[in-house]
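Sequence, please.
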């Protein structure tokens, strides 16, 4: 167990704990912003009025922001802590952990919100967290020595 040590970072990485904290905040925000931009583009093609485009984009931004925050708390924090405790630095380990923790978090959210789970919701949670974990890894400077 190597939790709270520099086990994830090579010696040349400066301020690793600050980088990890910023990465945990930036990665879900980047994904939520990207999703909002995609929804804006789709709404621009499908809505007939500017008001409709902005309404769809605003709703998507709110939903994606809340979704990203919930998945960061339910999957990101425990997942990164687990990877850190195990000293896993590889891309595949981070992607797999993201998918696994994201799927579990999506199941928890589905049960809490609707009393059931949906396969699409689980897939979205797994994909979102897989991408989030890869972004966290990249932004935090986690590297294989």
């Amino acid at each position: 167990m190597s939790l709270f040590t520099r086990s994830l970072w090579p010696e040349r990485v400066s301020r690793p704990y600050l980088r990890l904290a910023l990465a945990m905040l930036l990665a879900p925000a980047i994904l939520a912003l990207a999703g909002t931009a995609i929804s804006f583009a789709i709404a621009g093609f499908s809505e007939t009025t500017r008001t409709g485009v902005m309404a769809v984009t605003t709703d998507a931004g709110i939903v994606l922001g809340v979704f990203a925050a919930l998945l960061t708390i339910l999957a990101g924090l425990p997942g990164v802590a687990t990877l850190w405790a195990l000293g896993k630095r590889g891309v595949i380990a981070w992607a797999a952990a993201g998918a696994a923790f994201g799927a579990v978090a999506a199941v928890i959210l589905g049960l809490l919100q609707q009393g059931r789970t949906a396969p699409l919701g689980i897939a979205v949670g797994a994909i979102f967290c897989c991408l989030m974990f890869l972004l966290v890894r990249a932004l935090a400077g986690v590297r294989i020595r």
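Residues 16-140 form one domain.
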